[in-house]
Amino acid sequence: MPDADHLHQSHPEIVKRLKRADGHLRSIVEMIEAGRPCLDIAQQLHAVEKAIGQAKKTLIQDHLDNCLEEVVGPLAREQRRPIDEFKEITKYL
Predict the structure, then answer these.
(1) Fewer CB within 10 A of the end CB, N or C, for the chain?
(2) Which domain of life is it from (predicted)?
(3) Nearest Cα to 28, choosing from 12, 16, 46?
């Protein structure tokens, strides 16, 4: 049973992206087994890699926006600056 504290609004979309990437990855395995050209395979692997990376980035940013905010929310504005800067830099993951 999922822990409600760890479910966020973005999770269904992340699951959807990962399931799509999973299906895509399975088709890439079939491409390899069928002897498709390496360029085609590399292009498809790149697409799956980007999809998974975006899912990871969304998950991390959502975690910071939700979970970390619960902890630092009560801090004074000046004390929050390092946390806010940390959250901002994660956009460059």
Answers:
(1) N
(2) Bacteria
(3) 46
